[in-house]
Design a protein that fits this description.
- The two termini are 26 Å apart.
- It is built from five helices and eleven strands, in the order H-H-H-H-H-E-E-E-E-E-E-E-E-E-E-E.
- The radius of gyration is 19 Å and the shape is elongated.
- The N terminus and C terminus are likely disordered.
- Helix 2 crosses helix 3.
- By secondary structure, the protein is of the alpha+beta class.
């Protein structure tokens, strides 16, 4: 997945048709012309006009930029209200998802501008996968030790350690101990599939 990936067009199994009218309404509420908003977001007026008329669907980086410019949230841009979602996620409702040997538990509500997960990684899995995707990433080690490679630099994180980085930096994660590692994981790539945040396996192992 890369920075050009966009939210799918309306009618493809999602609830995004509300984005276009919301974009226009919130721009007008902020008192901005189409030209001024487009300039602030680094877009052409024609591109922003297509977003507002539903001819194009915005990527998450665009939504984040527009939300900042309009003084609102990604959730409001998506047409959500407080009543649309529950702020609390109960442990009993966190269904596990398995992907390439890792176990993922959704720890946040859907439709947010960030995706929050609790992750269990056994020893010897996914250590050769490099991940690169737009946005930011934050992780916190709960149990065990994590080997994290950011670009050319390797780090060993113990329980209580955390990392916060630009996720366009190539990064690899692996459990350092035979008992595996458990961590909290938050990223700003809107509700991405668990197993898609990677470019693929590389040769070699983490140092």
């Amino acid at each position: 997945m890369n920075a050009s990936d966009a939210v799918p067009p309306a009618g493809q199994g999602n609830n995004l048709p509300v984005v276009a009218p919301q974009l226009r309404a919130l721009r007008r509420r902020a008192g901005l012309t189409l030209e001024a908003a487009a300039r602030a977001a680094g877009l052409s007026p024609a591109h922003l006009s297509r977003l507002e008329t539903g001819q194009r669907q915005p990527s998450l980086p665009m939504l984040l930029a527009l939300a900042r410019i309009y003084g609102t949230t990604v959730s409001e841009l998506l047409g959500e209200t407080v009543a649309d979602r529950d702020a609390i996620v109960r442990a009993a409702d966190m269904e596990p998802t398995l992907a390439a040997g890792w176990t993922y538990f959704q720890a946040g509500a859907p439709g947010r501008g960030m995706q929050a997960l609790r992750v269990r990684a056994p020893y010897g899995t996914q250590g050769d996968i490099v991940r690169v995707h737009p946005g930011e990433e934050w992780l916190y080690v709960l149990k065990g030790r994590l080997r994290l490679q950011l670009g050319d630099t390797a780090h060993l994180l113990a329980p209580g350690d955390s990392a916060h980085f630009d996720s366009l930096t190539p990064h690899r994660l692996a459990a350092a101990d035979h008992d595996g590692v458990e961590l909290l994981f938050v990223h700003t790539l809107l509700q991405s599939p668990m197993a898609s945040l990677c470019l693929g396996p590389l040769t070699g192992e983490l140092p």
